[in-house]
Amino acid sequence: MLTLFFVDNLPTQVGSLYEFDNEDAQHAVRVLRMAAGETFMLADGTGAWSQVKAFAVKKKSMEVEVIASGFQEVLPTTITVVQALPKSDRAKEAIELLTEAGVDRIVPWAASRSIGKASEKFTVTAREASKQSRRLRIPEVTDIATTSQICEAIALSDLAIVFHESAEMKLSDCVSSHNVAHLLIIIGPEGGITPTEIEEFKAAGAKVALMGRPILRSAHAGIAAVAAVSALLKVW
Q: What is the pTM of this model?
């Protein structure tokens, strides 16, 4: 698969010339040592893409020609993951893994037992992970949300699942239909979701499910949950 970079002003007309000169271009020139004649992908982060061919490489930029262009439509199921904030290094890892799993929206959650803090760098992390995983749509990383705001999101979703080690219901028993346009997955902090938070989520309409026997780290649980639910909903 071709290397992917993001640009703000994506060229889409086949045959047109474009000056690729942002930070990604500098990375392509200085780190990847890309040369004239090489082809790669440019995208705007919202689905539009262009395949380009480099014909002139400068110190910090490249001149390219558009050789193909298109648009990637969204999948039938939009996936939002509410991620309770772990420590800074784990939080970054969680954002990376959720991006690689293909989620559409990541909502940092200030849970009662959260020990991490939100960071403006989360959007940068999502962008870089999107390039790494060759995804054309960069996931939205929202502002930090409260428990009450999560409850509002639950009410608006078609299916909301909270993963908790005390749950008696299997994940497979939570999915009764493949017709889910808006999926919401909630991952708690390392210290666990409190009983009060669980009751609030259940009252808002969420299902509480068990994710197997092993207890995963908060930063790792999200990608496991997305993979399992995506398979059950036949998104994958």
A: 0.90
